[in-house]
Description:
Blueprint: H1 2-7, E1 16-18, H2 24-35, H3 39-53, H4 56-65, E2 77-81, H5 84-98, E3 109-110, E4 127-131, H6 139-152, E5 163-169, E6 172-178, E7 181-184, E8 188-190, H7 196-202, E9 210-219, E10 228-231, E11 236-241, E12 244-253, H8 262-276, H9 286-289, E13 291-300, E14 307-310, E15 317-321, H10 327-344
Parallel strand pairs: 1-12, 2-10, 8-15
Antiparallel strand pairs: 2-4, 3-4, 5-6, 6-7, 9-12, 9-13, 10-11, 11-12, 14-15
Helix pairs in contact: 4-10
The chain binds flavin-adenine dinucleotide (FAD).
Amino acid sequence: MVRYALRSLGRPDSPLYLRPLPDPAFVRWLWRFWRSSTPAAFRRGYTAIAELNRDTFDRFDELREAGVRTTLTRPGMVHAFLSAAEARRHLAVQRDMADGHYRLPEDVTIGDEARLLDDALAPGVRAAYLVEGEGVVDPEAFARGLGQALAASGVKVHEHTRITGFRTAGGRVTALRTSQGEIPCQAVVIAAGMRSPALLRLLGRRLPLQAGKGYSFSVDLDPAPRHTLYFGERRAVASPIGATTRIGGTMELSGSNNRLDWRRIVAVALASRHYLGNWFDDPDDLVTLIRDPWVGGRPFLPDGLPVIDRVPGHDNAYAATGHGMLGITLGPAAGHELAEYVRTGTRPQALRPFRFDRLYG
Ligand SMILES: Cc1cc2nc3c(=O)[nH]c(=O)nc-3n(C[C@H](O)[C@H](O)[C@H](O)COP(=O)(O)OP(=O)(O)OC[C@H]3O[C@@H](n4cnc5c(N)ncnc54)[C@H](O)[C@@H]3O)c2cc1C
């Protein structure tokens, strides 16, 4: 990954793009990222995430049973490749990492038959395999559904309310200072994405978070993919969300900002044509063809793992952030474990790898 990142320097059309920044915090983050990029650390982190993720679909089911419109469907994911060798390499790595914990096909479908796995695939796809049961949600609708279900069960949701500080006494947070006045609290969970470091700093903690910027947009394709499609060599994804297709990709380390670089949207769209066929002729047509072009920062700590823990020095303040590219997937599982921690005061075993103190070693 580190070699791959270095090769991408100065190439804004690369799936992983690193823009050197004269920012000491960014340099320190890169240094720690490099130090965390050993096979042993990667395997340890992967195991911890897999363990937390084990009950994810059960957690989504519980949310649905509790009245949340999760929007979850499980169409499965077709991993598509332009070369058979790359597909086989990818499947071998995935099988190794899955270590029998979830079902993967024995082999890759090669040649003309590969594109039969999904009608939307183009003739350029020379190898593919289907991972059954992989899920898709519409993240905005899911978040909205969660808010509505909470409100319906009597929870007061303060929308459009910015937290600006904390009132503390004796190592406890007693109230939130907000743009709408103070809100007294018994406990607080800081889960503010890329804004979490600023809030944690107010509680005396530094959090080395960097944004891995990604882009997505919606488009109506004919035929539309029935499965989620992963474009292997280009590391982009097309997901069926309702009747439309959402295409997303890129990992851009260029500081914590939400600047939308149109070249990256074009790069993702061009990459998708290798797998979906020429769904547009000229990049200039994209302006009218696509909807909701979006850029978001995936919150990353340098070892790639989230922090889901009590904030050191505060009895009733917690943090849940840094979920990187898995925040939607892991949200319900992380929330479930953290709720137990808040309620009982005892850290669940599954949260041990996500402690604060690992960051200050
Ligand atoms: C292109 C792209 C594709 C992705 N695909 C996937 C995927 O397939 N699967 C997956 O699991 N994840 C995916 N992710 C990652 C996922 O979106 C993130 O991990 C997730 O959104 C992080 O959630 P969060 O709640 O920690 O932060 P956020 O989603 O950033 O939410 C933080 C919230 O806190 C609020 N906030 C911030 N500061 C304050 C304040 N001071 N006061 C009050 N409120 C505040 C913000 O307004 C925001 O609503 C993708 C991300 C991108 C960019």
